[in-house]
Amino acid sequence: MDKTVNDYAIPIDVYPHLRENQTLQDAIDVIRSFTCVDYLQFSEVLILNDQRQLVGRITVREILRGFGPHLLTKDETPDFEGLEADFPNLAILWEDSFYRECRKQTGRPISEFLSPIKATVKPSDPLLKALYIMMRTHENNLPVLEENRVVGVMRIKEVFSAVCSYCAV
């Protein structure tokens, strides 16, 4: 099967990416620009510096957490009580607070919300190396780097299609 990452990677020019000095609103806009009839084609944006070197990524989850950083923290969030619960006003207070706060947050720099990149691949790497890394790191997307510059992204969707076209009857 001698297939390489380069045979299946999405070129960076057609994958959502931003510069590190852009805002949460820019991340929202770029993900929306890749949305097709309410279907998100991409759930993350790669963040690059001016030399097209990888800085990190921002996912849809981090964007949503950015809307309500005080409500959607990782560790300290109390249980959300719905309208049928003993405390129906808590749900109303959370909703009011969240929607009031979220628009204020969109001007914040995306650098505040980045998640690190766990692994990368090179264009010349075998496709099975990308599969192995994805399975070990639980990553669905791997940036493709050539000489420390991002040239594309290898997604699990393309790995799945390639492997299944060879393995499935």
Mind explaining what this structure looks like?
With 169 residues, the protein is α+β, with helices and mostly antiparallel strands. The protein has one domain (5-167): CBS-domain (Roll), CATH 3.10.580.10. The chain has six helices and eight strands, in the order H-E-E-H-E-E-E-E-H-H-H-E-E-H. It has helices spanning 5-8, 24-33, 60-67, 88-105, 127-137, 156-167; strands spanning 10-11, 17-19, 35-36, 39-40, 44-48, 54-59, 141-146, 149-155. Strands 1-8-7 form a three-stranded antiparallel sheet. The chain has a three-stranded mixed sheet with strand order 2-5-6. The longest helix is centred in the middle third of the chain and has 18 residues, at 88-105. The two termini are 15 Å apart.
What's this entry about, in short?
This protein is of the alpha+beta class. The protein is built from 6 helices and 8 strands, in the order H-E-E-H-E-E-E-E-H-H-H-E-E-H.
State the CATH superfamily name.
Answer: CBS-domain
Number of strands: 8
Write the CATH fold name. CBS-domain
Task: Assign a percent range to the helix content.
Answer: 25-40%
How many structurally independent domains?
1
> What's the alpha carbon Rg, rounded to whole Å?
19 Å
State the major sheet. Answer: 3 strands, antiparallel
Q: How does CATH name the architecture?
A: Roll
Helix/strand order, N-terminal first: HEEHEEEEHHHEEH
Tell me, rounded to a whole number, the average pLDDT: 85
Structural class: alpha+beta
Q: Identify low-pLDDT runs.
A: none
* Major beta sheet, strand line-up: 1-8-7
Ends distance: 15 Å
Query: Total helix count?
Result: 6
Q: What share of residues are in beta strands? A: 15-25%
Shape call: globular
CATH level 1 class label: Alpha Beta
